[in-house]
From TrEMBL:
It comes from Ancylostoma caninum. PROSITE patterns: SAP_B (PS50015). The keyword Translocase does not apply. Residues 1-18 form the signal peptide. Keywords: Disulfide bond, Signal. InterPro entries: Saposin-like (IPR011001), SaposinB_dom (IPR008139). Residues 21-104 form the Saposin B-type domain. It comes from the Eukaryota. This is Saposin B-type domain-containing protein.
Amino acid sequence: MRFLLTTVSFTLLALSSAQKGGMMCSFCMTIVANTQDAYGPAIVNTTDLELLRYFRKECPRYAVKSTMLAGECEYLVSEHPLVFFRDLRHGKSPLDTCTDCESC
């Protein structure tokens, strides 16, 4: 019986982690797509400082929809800014960008 409970507990923990990871990946792709839409083709000439200013205003706005979405935005900007900004400027797909930033 104890073995069964332990097995079920580990399975549920693994499933919840996978769902959270999938949710963060989805949030990341939403953030990338929204940013690409906001800048359009001009994003290729956008500096790191301009992107940083944009996200300092934009990340808190995501909190209206979801605190986890806002948290993912802050994570991307604070933990992976060079990769995140480079991928945005190079026009990488949201999935590729989020994979590079370890959100997917």
